[in-house]
Amino acid sequence: MASIRTPRNLCGQVVHDLGSRILAGEVKPGEPLPQETTLCEEMGVSRTVVREAIKSLAAKGLVESRAKRGTIVRPARVWNYLDPEVLEWQSQSDVNGQLLRYLTEFRQAIEPTAAALAAERASDDERALIQEAWEEMARGAGSVEAFHLADTRFHTEILHATGNPFFAPVANVISVSLEASLEVTNRQPVENLASVPVHQKVLDAILARKPKEASEAMRSHLKDAADRIERVLGSG
């Protein structure tokens, strides 16, 4: 028996389609989306589904409704770039690696401080979770997928261990950035193996409760990653 698609599933599909178009530049800031009736016909959905999708896009900062003009794409500077779906749509349209550069730059501004705070504030349980994630990295170095999952967890656990809830949303940026970065720099297991001791320096400093050393180790790690990314992108 075929599964029945719920309105939420349909709405999600419309949100994804329209959001992808906007981030790909098919509909530019200041331009209107197709009229409601056109979207209904094109996507085979009801007005209710289209309206809910527009509300979702508006909540992400991508569009706004204007009298006599319809639904207009907002300037890129007000888009919610930390939204998981917006990040996904951005990554799909990142043809020249510029998004990866931006994400890496953002991480360099955030993660050294997060590592220092984790070294200072993390509980014993949080330190154990960071170490567990590092051990998963070491075991999974032979697999790009397993290594990516463990690497993401390692950096995410550090964010949570800061004790500051405003670091948590950055985990989405870390995940997208790491996935894109590893596709560029860690295509072979040997490259994963080389990353393990680099992450261990961050881990050791956090476990030793040395904020300055943790920050410097993270800064060095991210600088090395940025340099490797630039070498690959620059030679492409």
UniProtKB/TrEMBL annotation:
<dbReference type="GO" id="GO:0003700">
    <property type="term" value="F:DNA-binding transcription factor activity"/>
</dbReference>
<dbReference type="Pfam" id="PF00392">
    <property type="entry name" value="GntR"/>
</dbReference>
<protein>
    <submittedName>
        <fullName>Pyruvate dehydrogenase complex repressor</fullName>
    </submittedName>
</protein>
<dbReference type="InterPro" id="IPR011711">
    <property type="entry name" value="GntR_C"/>
</dbReference>
<dbReference type="Pfam" id="PF07729">
    <property type="entry name" value="FCD"/>
</dbReference>
<dbReference type="GO" id="GO:0003677">
    <property type="term" value="F:DNA binding"/>
</dbReference>
<keyword id="KW-0805">Transcription regulation</keyword>
<keyword id="KW-0238">DNA-binding</keyword>
<dbReference type="InterPro" id="IPR036390">
    <property type="entry name" value="WH_DNA-bd_sf"/>
</dbReference>
<dbReference type="InterPro" id="IPR000524">
    <property type="entry name" value="Tscrpt_reg_HTH_GntR"/>
</dbReference>
<dbReference type="InterPro" id="IPR036388">
    <property type="entry name" value="WH-like_DNA-bd_sf"/>
</dbReference>
<keyword id="KW-0804">Transcription</keyword>
<dbReference type="InterPro" id="IPR008920">
    <property type="entry name" value="TF_FadR/GntR_C"/>
</dbReference>
<keyword id="KW-0670">Pyruvate</keyword>
<feature type="domain" description="HTH gntR-type">
    <location>
        <begin position="8"/>
        <end position="76"/>
    </location>
</feature>
